[in-house]
Amino acid sequence: MFLKRSTCILMFSMVATQLFAQQRPQYTQYIFNNYLLNPALSGTENYADIKVGHRSQWSGIENAPKTSFLSAHWSLGDDYLWGNPLSLPEKGDDPMSRSYLQNYTASPAHHGVGVMMVSDKAGPISRIDAGVSYAYHLRMSGTNNLSVGVYAGVSRIALDMKQITLENANDPALAGAVVSQFKPDLSMGVWYYGARFFAGISSQQILPQKLAFTSSADYSTGKSVPHFFLTSGYKLFVDEDISAIPSFMVKRVEGLPISFDLNLKLDYKNKIWIGGSYRKSDSFSAMAGINFKRFLNLTYAYDFTVSELNTVSNGSHEIVLGFQLNNVYQVFSGGRTWR
User: What is the pLDDT of residues 184-193, one digit of tens each?
Assistant: First the structure.
């Protein structure tokens, strides 16, 4: 790709805005790992919930966004709490069954912690976010909990000069380029949940930061802006073995149109599931997953692009591998009812 000097300067003046117009990475399977968006989920499970994922967005477009992540969160303390969202029934019983949920009780107050690392790259711009989270879970009633969480970390935002080729190798457009910068990062969230229902609100990038890849004051107006997420869903039983979980998400980012997602997951005995999602004016998605006993689960999603990018994009792929450490009960992966 050849850039004239004026084009290169324009890129520097807009690069921060472009980076965050793409904003934080978007995910298709966030509904099964809301911890990526809301730190209040830290410690919701009675085991260490670990997930490793990769997303290749807009396949077919050169230098399109690619995102990889590693997340883990767990409750503090060694005791298994009986009859609450941090526990499972007798060994071999299905914790997602209708009969178990009829006797569901809320968890006593407890603490949760977590860690997260996300790598995102689009063209010559890359970003790595890493940090830790903490949440406190309150018992609101016999069947509902409210948790409040915070995430604190650091972001490294970089520009790969090797991917920028100029007609004139000595062009001063790149003089004084800032190829790497570190910024503090802060997120907060609230999560309300019970046996079948969940709702949460969170904000990422709370701390506004100026961003620029040049030392010139004329092209240093880029900035990061907060992201707001509202999610909710409910679990319905078709029969004893099959459940349906409809959910939605509303995303608000300054300077961009509001994003709205609708999701539906159909689950069979908490062993295999299929699902679909629609993101307004952007994509339709097909999802599927399988749980391997008490330790491992694998999920995949494919996005069919419906925006104008569909003429050049072959869609997006996303795969997530999940591990459940210290899940002592012999049941198929016992994640929360609404996951």
Answer: 999 999 999 9
